[in-house]
Amino acid sequence: MASPSKRIIAVIGATGTQGGSVTWTFLSLPNWHVRCLTRNPASEAAQALASLGAEVVQADLGDLSSLSRAFSNANAIFLNTDFWTVFRPTMASGKNEVESGKLAYEAEVTNGKNAAIAAAGVSTLERLVYSALGPMEKASNGKFKTYHWAGKSSIVEYIENEQPELAKKSSIIYLGAYNTNPFVAPKRNPQTGEYGFVLPFSKETRFPIVDPIEATGPFVRALVEDEAPGTKLLAYNESSYLDFGSVVDIWTGVTGKNISFVQTTAEALHAMTGIPLEILLGGAYLGEFDYCAGVEGIIEPHQLKNKVQTKSFEQWLKEGGLKNMNI
Ligand SMILES: NC(=O)c1ccc[n+]([C@@H]2O[C@H](COP(=O)([O-])OP(=O)(O)OC[C@H]3O[C@@H](n4cnc5c(N)ncnc54)[C@H](OP(=O)(O)O)[C@@H]3O)[C@@H](O)[C@H]2O)c1
Fold it and tell me: Which of 58, 80, 285 for mutating ligand 1's site (highest number of atoms within 8 Å of CB)?
């Protein structure tokens, strides 16, 4: 039960990476009560959140009535929709990647719309923060399309066009590539034993890199407490909007190894490794377009009213991140 003196934030995906970070940040603020939504309150991750002082409630993004209950009296909502929860098991069941992508896209968009419909009915709501990716297909004039980017930009469009009252209370966070994203970690060549990047873009390609565990919560707090609704933030760590030449140099410096870089195409890499085009085309897109191309009025971390303290990607690798990267 929330104390009447506290404001309530409802966190979707609280047992996951982004929502976990939002939960820890808001639990550390004395004026907030954190309500974590999960499909399974009995899970170890949900129980761990409860032991930290969060309220844990059962809700499923596929079930509108469960969301309406879970959002009751909320002042803020953090919404994350996950594409891969549906994509991975669908692929594993034997469907091809286009079929799997379509099914995961449809589920993600339905989930996002459900959350928006439920949020629109919450009279106490002051801020919804949705974690999205940019409008890849529109920004590239149809040249690139991946379902995991498309679902999130469809949800943003739905909020802006179909839920105008909710849109007035909403902000969007565009998290950069996670610091653990396979694109930003070199691989060992089993034949030569040497490390290098083989990627579907050039060394000039720029990636915003974020530590989603440390940084999502502080950036979301800024969007809830400091910034006006309607803010669109590209969130990345200090000094970590990097071209790939710099990423290679950082890895060389941190590991002391010679790290090579080879550019190829998404299709060639797919044929060589079996990594889904759904993932590789995201990289190829970034070789030609900015991460948040097509998002009007996007701001970057240095434009926030109050600075969010984050470590650079290099510092993160040096201070222990390297051990998580399997190299
Ligand atoms: N990797 C990157 O570089 C990168 C960069 C930017 C954005 N992203 C995006 O980040 C998203 C993943 O976020 P994450 O890393 O925080 O995910 P995560 O750690 O895998 O967690 C997924 C969360 O979603 C919740 N969830 C899944 N289905 C649900 C449903 N039907 N109803 C309610 N909750 C549900 C799960 O909660 P329960 O299991 O407890 O119900 C879990 O907490 C992806 O869509 C990805 O595209 C990734």
Answer: 80
